[in-house]
Amino acid sequence: MPQIISSLDELENAGLRHVLVMYSGGVDGSYLLQWFARRNIEVTALQVRIGDAYEVDSDVVKWRAAKFGVSTHSIDASHEFFTRYLPAAIHADAYYQGQFPVSSTLTRPLMAKVAVATARQLGCDAVAHTATYMQNSSLRLSASIAALDREMVIAAPFLGSDVPRDVKVASLHDAGITFETGIHSVDASPWARVIECGSLENPENILDETVFTWTRDIDDCPDGGIELDLAFTGGQPTEMDGKPVALGDLVSTLNELGGQHGVGRFSGLEDTPFGVKNHEIREAPAAAVITAAHRALANAVYGMREHAIRTTLAQEWTNLVVHGGWYGHLAQSLSHCLAELDEPLTGVVRLRLRRGTVQVLRLQSQHGLYYSRFGENFHRWMRGYSYSPWLTQATMTDAVRGEHNEQ
């Protein structure tokens, strides 16, 4: 079993030689670098870049780390995110408890993978992260590191050491580092921007409009809205308005278009391992648009049993990866299964984005099971089968699909 250090006191007495700190330039990571610097422990900061949605520029990240004598490794993992991690979430329509698109659930396993590889390369004896006991990311990071390297020491000191955010901000201010976001904690990936802390911690408070940067308030959106066509191949979006588009470019475009029309604001409570719930605000325009289209296409193509089983598997996969099981055998197996189930999901969905809503206007799929595609052929075919009692619904779905595709 891997060794897990879960407090600052344990960390101080662990006798570590060289620690790799997963670092995005934020308050928590900067405070940890400051803490290490005061104890003359060798540290390397690792910034894992995914797309261009990160909150702190790489030059600022390096400058902040350098304030404490720490060098920074900056690694771009965007390609792997868009080719492996995000497609898995699209296949599963991965929403946390149906409330909002998953975000760090996708990025944390990838960051952990990069961190373990970098730590091995540099000869580090520990990987440190700053997730707290109120963040499920602590589980995602620690479990991923442990799955990838059983010998690596995992330092998660803020699990057991609760240092208030305002104390961290004040300490860093004394060191010459200030933060524009102040009391709010922001984590951004191309798929979602997550905002926490401050007044947002209490769901009884009215949402602070100033925390939103990707999406407009619906009162400020254009009147007419916008229409667009998304084409899918094997359950993944491959074209927009008839033109091929890479997934990363599509996400960027839809984040901008959706945000202009107020699409993609989410608010909900996330369960933590300790029974209490954490309030989270998210902006995810592209996720809202792509998921709406994917769900509509799945509804048109899947038979009743296919749809029910696929929904169950998707929920199970989402629950597993939310709680740190990305690299587990079950999660990997379910992910492969969901991708195979999505193979018939090919077609085009037209959507209207208007004042915070995503409306499906039309869809077309060569594998669609909707009646209008079959017409008289369906009646002729059914008479030939004479409603045989041995035909299950799943068998009927395959038979109808096969009959039509053979014509």
What's the total number of strands?
A: 17
Largest sheet: 6 strands, parallel
Helix content range of the residues, please?
40-55%
Pattern of helices and strands:
EHEHEHEHEEHEHEHEEEEEHEEHHHEEHH
The proportion of residues in beta strands is: 15-25%
Rg calculated over all Cα atoms: 24 Å
Describe it.
The protein has about 400 residues and is α/β, with parallel strands linked by helices. Among the domains are: about 5-180, HUPs (Rossmann fold, 3-Layer(aba) Sandwich), CATH 3.40.50; about 370-405. Helix content is about 40%, strand content about 20%. It is built from 13 helices and 17 strands. The strands form 4 sheets. The protein has a 6-stranded parallel sheet, with helices on both faces. Helix 5 crosses helix 6 (about 135-150). The longest helix has 19 residues, at about 105-120. The protein is globular, with a radius of gyration of 24 Å. It starts with a strand and ends with a helix. The mean pLDDT is about 90.
Layout of helices and strands:
Blueprint: E1 4-5, H1 8-12, E2 18-22, H2 27-37, E3 42-49, H3 58-66, E4 71-76, H4 78-91, E5 95-96, E6 100-101, H5 104-122, E7 126-128, H6 137-148, E8 153-155, H7 165-174, E9 185-189, E10 192-196, E11 226-233, E12 236-240, E13 243-244, H8 247-260, E14 265-271, E15 277-283, H9 285-301, H10 304-322, H11 329-341, E16 347-354, E17 357-364, H12 376-385, H13 393-406
Parallel strand pairs: 1-8, 2-3, 2-7, 3-4, 7-8
Antiparallel strand pairs: 5-6, 9-10, 10-15, 11-12, 11-16, 12-13, 14-15, 16-17
Helix pairs in contact: 2-7, 5-6, 8-9, 10-11
